[in-house]
Amino acid sequence: MDYLLANTPIETLKTECLIVAVFENKQLSPAAQKLDLLTDGLITDTLQRGDIKGKVADTLLINYLPYAAIKRTLLVGFGDADKLTPKDYRKAINAAANTLKSTQISSADCYLTEIKLAKHSITWNARQIIEAFDTSFYQFNDCKSKPADILALKALSLNSLTDTDAIQTGINQGKAIAQGVALAKRVSDLPGNICTPTYLAGQALEIAKQNKNLTAEILEEADMEKLGMGSFLSVSRGSRQPAKLITLEYKGADKNVQPIVFVGKGLTFDAGGISLKPGAGMDEMKYDMCGSAAVLGALQAAAQLELPLNIIGIIPSSENMPDGDANKPGDIVTSMAGLTIEILNTDAEGRLILCDALTYAKKFNPDVVIDMATLTGACLVALGRVPSGLLGNDDALCNDLYSASETALDSVWRLPLWDEYQDQLKSNFADIANIGGRDAGTITAACFLSRFTEDYQWAHLDIAGTAWKTGDAKGATGRPVPLLVQYLLDRSNAA
Ligand code: BES
Ligand code: MN
Ligand code: ZN
User: Fold this and answer.
1) Separation in Å, CA 442 to CA 70, 77, 264, 374, 418
2) Where is the Cytosol aminopeptidase domain (predicted)?
3) Is 248 part of any domain?
4) CATH assignment at residue 118
5) pLDDT tens, 156-205?
6) Is 356 marked within a binding site?
7) Which of 292, 317, 347, when mutated, tests ligand 1's pocket best, judged by the most ligand atoms within 8 Å of its CB?
8) I need a surface site. Which of 115, 294, 334, 474 has the fewest CB within 10 A?
9) Sequence-ordered strand ranges (E) for 415-471
10) What's residue 35's pLDDT?
11) 114 labeled binding residue
């Protein structure tokens, strides 16, 4: 989809469809008022008749106007103008996008940046419009013999007579985020027989090829052997697909500026290993690489926006399969950090590959390290599918991520990482066990990781409940790409 900036007044606009806002209590936005004048009061009449109430996310498509230059109009409700929240704004835009999806309209004009939000700039409005439309129009067709639906809309113009520079900035940011989200969704939605560790490595090389300032390096199992990554390699031993350690490096600042490091779990299929998962819903474990997908999406967005930062993306990628040579419960392995690990459950494999990647991260002298992983089913029990879980060893970093999540509408909620929980990881035979029992599973998983992150400021995002949707709408969400890019934008402004 093309997203364009326009500054055409409604009086001279020619369009297939004009999108304007209306409010509760029959109130019109400035654009709706102008349209009302051009159409002999059609919009006022429509509200009087009660055909649209103007509540948040109400929509009404009027497909004939007594004014030839504007073929149709989509009225979108934004509720009470004085009480409009950022979430409401996004909800209304989502509704507009979803309504247009089932029409034959191929290009539309909107005047939706003009709606004022107390907390946010017009740049934010423009960005949300693009993210919402792009998410709504995302389709996964890679594995279908023909596309599911033909979507007509090809171009959306953001129209405004003022603040055009701010809107253009929002369009650029929105496009970069939307493309990062779309990339993350696509690799995540690909099945495990196509999206293997080797495929992810290929994607990283491809992204590096397409973006200047971005380079990729792939380490093979033999390289990891030399680095002593006994924990990571123990997981891939049960798989015929070779593991890869992928590093993406984005240079946007002076070379001695310490980098922000993202680490993403790239389990391209998690069968559980010898601690085999039950069959029902196991297909969804192709999504166990969503953390790595978000790293790819965020780095691509950073490169497109040419952010003045240095950023490293590290992706440990493997399958977790049952096999004659697979990890067995009770096995003890030695991590790159030197800590020995008793593997009490081979299905707690994410932390086994992440711990070596987190140790590897030290070589980049990181400013901060943020890992993201579909790590625990327990996170779904604790927080459901609304926020991602956030844990970390640094309050300032956690607060920065929380604030970025609010701006990006990509929510997180912090859980405690107190020492008391560390006891659950005691092992009779090794330095540490890889599981901490039934209680507080998300926290004990983070406790495990915390043993490997003591040398730097670190935060962990458990995205088990947020990276994909289950049920009829099964599909990747691209989260937490919006949060990560917002964090990077905030850091860029502070720099
Ligand atoms: N990838 C899973 C976590 C997961 C499960 C994410 C379901 C989303 C939905 C992870 O590797 C795993 O299997 N974790 C175990 C840990 C347990 C054995 C301590 C879990 O959550 O059951
Ligand atoms: Mn598992
Ligand atoms: Zn897993």
Assistant:
1) 54, 39, 16, 10, 12
2) 345-352
3) yes
4) 3.40.220.10
5) 999 999 999 999 999 999 999 999 999 999 999 999 999 999 999 999 99
6) no
7) 347
8) 474
9) 432-433, 457-462, 468-469
10) 98
11) no
Q: Is the CB of 349 under 6 A from ligand 1?
A: yes
**Confidence label for 277 from pLDDT (cuts 50, 70 and 90):** very high
Q: Is the pLDDT of residue 149 over 90?
A: no
* Number of domains comprising the chain: 2
Residue with tokens 């999108």: 19
User: Which residue has the least CA distance to atom 17 on ligand 1?
Assistant: 348
For ligand 2, the distance from its centroid to the CA atom of residue 277, given in whole angstroms, is 8
**CB distance 127 to 86 below 8 Å:** no
> Which of 130, 161, 192 is the last residue in one of the domains?
161
Helix (H/G/I), strand (E/B), else coil: 479? coil
Q: Among 132, 161, 190, which residue terminates a domain?
A: 161
What is the distance between the alpha carbons of residues 282 and 270, in angstroms, rounded to a whole number?
8
Please give the pLDDT value at position 494.
86
Confidence of residue 474 (pLDDT cuts 50, 70, 90): very high
Q: Any binding-site annotation on 265?
A: yes
- At 147 the pLDDT is 84
90 is catalytic: no
- Rounded to the nearest angstrom, the gap between the alpha carbon of residue 85 and the centroid of all alpha carbons in its chain is 22
Same domain, 272 and 393: yes
479 is catalytic: no
> What tens digit of pLDDT does each residue of 229-262 get?
999 999 999 999 999 999 999 999 999 999 999 9
Is 437 near ligand 1, meaning CB less than 6 Å away?
no
Q: Is residue 397 part of a domain?
A: yes
User: What's the whole-number average pLDDT of the chain?
Assistant: 98
Q: What is the pTM of this model?
A: 0.98
Q: Is 270 annotated as a binding residue?
A: yes
Q: Indicate whether residue 372 lines ligand 1 (CB < 6 A).
A: no
Residue 170 domain-assigned? Answer: no
Are 206 and 97 in a shared domain? no
Q: Which of 71, 72, 277, 385 is catalytic?
A: 277
**Residue type (1 letter), 188:** S
Q: Which atom of ligand 1 is nearest to the CA of 272?
A: 13
Instruction: Check whether residue 365 and residue 481 sit in a common domain.
Output: yes
In a domain, 479, yes or no: yes
User: Do residues 147 and 204 share a domain?
Assistant: no
Marked catalytic residue, from 185, 351, 479, 491: 351
Q: Which residues have C-beta within 8 Å of that of residue 400, sequence separation ≥ 6?
A: 487, 490, 491
Q: Are residues 151 and 190 in the same domain?
A: no
Range of the domain at 406: 179-494
